[in-house]
Amino acid sequence: MRARALLQSPFLADPTVGLLVSIALAAGIAAFDYATEYRLRVGVLYLPPIFLATWAAGRTAGLAIGGASAALWLATLFGKQPYLGTLHHLWEGTLHLVMYAAFVFAIARLKSALELAKERFVSAFDSLEAAAWVVDPESDALLYSNPQFSRTFGAVGSAGGLARRFGAFAPAPPEGEAFDTESGRWFYLLARAMRWLDGRSVRLYVATDITESKRAEQLARKQAEQLERTARLIAVGEMASTLAHELNQPLGAIANYNNGCIRLLRQWSGAPGASPAEGPSGFDPRELLELMEKCSTQALRAGDVVRRIREFVRRRPPTLHPENPRALVMGALGAAEGEMVDVRLQAVTELPAALPDVAADRVMVTRVMVNLARNAWEAMQALEEEERRLVVRAREHDTEVEFEFADRGPGVAAELERQLFQPFVTTKAEGMGLGLAICRSIVEYHRGELWFTRNPEGGTTFHFTLPVARR
Amino acid sequence: MFVVDDDDALRDSLRALLGSAGFRCEGYASAAEFLAAYRDEAGCLLLDVRMPGMSGLRLQDQLAERGVPIPIVFVTGHGDVPMAVEAMRKGAFDFLEKPYADEELLDRVRRAIASDASRRREEEERRAAEAALEALTAREREVLDCLLAGRTGRATAQQLGITEKTVEFHRSRIMQKLQMRTREQLFELCRRARVFPQ
To answer: Which fold has domain B135-192?
Structure first.
């Protein structure tokens, strides 16, 4: 710990201070040598000041201090033991000089290696678009942070303060998705233990802003939910409206028969209001008339009840926007493929390049197309795989665009033809028989029409029209 | 009159109701059946908007394409109002929303049949007037045109390069051929025959 603190102290960081301190140290050692009359061979004592000078002020300064140290050492030696002989002095002086120089080179090399490592680290993280920072877990100090860090989090004093923003009590926030309470953004946090430049173990954090993708994800989920809800609403509405329609037909027939009877009775008993003749068996036809009129009133009332139910579950009106027909078809085919597991839909599209936009509710129309594509595909299950082919065409009539979904299946059975669009009619084992009924409802909502034809070469083509969007 | 509805009971009940009110009624279960059977008879068409196969709106288009002018009264369920609006836009005579009171239905049918009858009468008159005008010679037509344009005898004579007397002669021939006594009657005939001054 102390050594590390010393390495970061101003002696080592500031070249001038370092140089001055090293000169003072070298002078002190020379004085010590002189005072002790060179009883000890303390040439190594000069190594600390040389190290200091090299580390703080570079190789040249180190070499200078080294040379001076060698000279000082030689001077003290010469001053105390001049009788050793010139050769011996020269030998000792050269030996120390070489030793000091080697030491300087080694230290300078070590320092530049460390600096290079730091530089590499810093340049790697400075250009990172994610916020990155290094924390000393023991002291809670921020050792390093890249420029993106301050752009993202602003001025942050300590690692602990940052961790609290992520809702963590410990100085180390957990890995994974984390929400920054201050900026209101989502981040993906990555933590790695690593060895810092000076050798201590630290933690490196990288925080990637995932707010956008998180938002996109939420949006996609919301849209999927809405599609699901819309589909369900349409289904519920269709069931109610079907029930209402199915009840309305017999109710209407009852009312018509009844009104017909009333008319005949009136004719038989003379003009309305006129005094009728007595009936054949002595009963008054007016009584019968009265009862039948009540019957009619009740039939109408039942019809009204049905109508109110329908109004209550009134289906969502489509929100029409100009939509590109090609985009609609492509989107729907993709969605259909997504809904069918393990199926590669072989669809051939014949879409003219310049089709006008149609006024459509994209969600609803996609529902229709997905349904038709699925039906077509399911109709071709008996065929060899390479023969299954769905052809989707679109063409423009002056105010409408007609879409066609043609399959090569066995075609619609003759006995089914009349009730194909009837709700609760199905050929599928698990199916409510609402698909085509819903499709037709949706298309009719758009003021278009849905019908089918038999292909001359076999199979069925479903057609529907959508109005061209007004400009 | 004609009823096209895929629901057998409803069709039959309509026939009963309309029959009780004195209409002769023919029912068809599909648009195709009606198209195959219909031969420009007088009356009106009571048509269900929603039917399997060819829908009411398609039938309307087909009839329009073939130039069949029969008035159509659409019957719609509650949810089909936009379609009814579409049908009206394409020239349907009227529409009825279920459930309806019988008087409403009969009233609309009566009006539709009346409209068909008056259209047929007009058509008849037009044909008769056209046929009558066919009897005129080319010169007489020229004189008639000038007459319709309100030119005087003299102006007519000048334009056609004949004498005023000859113009007067042609005029009386025209009146005689068309069995018209007054100018107003002549003009009325020309209006019916869609002959207008150039």
So the answer is: Arc Repressor Mutant, subunit A (1.10.10)
* Percent of chain A predicted with pLDDT > 90: 9
Interface contact flag, A250 B98, Cβ < 8 Å: no
Residue A369: is its pLDDT beyond 70? yes
DSSP 8-state secondary structure symbol assigned to residue A468:
B
pLDDT above 60 for B11: yes
pLDDT per residue as tens digits for the range A131-143? 888 888 787 788 8
Query: Could you tell me the residue ranges of all domains in chain B?
Result: 2-125, 135-192
CA A73 vs CA A29, A79, A82, A100, B71: distances in Å: 9, 10, 13, 12, 128
Architecture of domain B2-125: 3-Layer(aba) Sandwich (3.40)
- Using a CB-CB cut-off of 8 Å, the residues of chain A touching B16 are 256-257, 260
Q: A283 pLDDT exceeds 70?
A: no
For chain A, say whether B58 makes contact (Cβ under 8 Å): yes
Please check whether residue B52 is in contact with residue A440, taking contact to mean a CB–CB distance below 8 angstroms.
no
Strands A347-350, B26-28: pairing kind: unpaired
Asked if pLDDT for residue B169 goes beyond 60, the answer is yes
pLDDT at residue A1 in the model = 43
Q: Do A253 and B17 touch (CB under 8 A)?
A: no
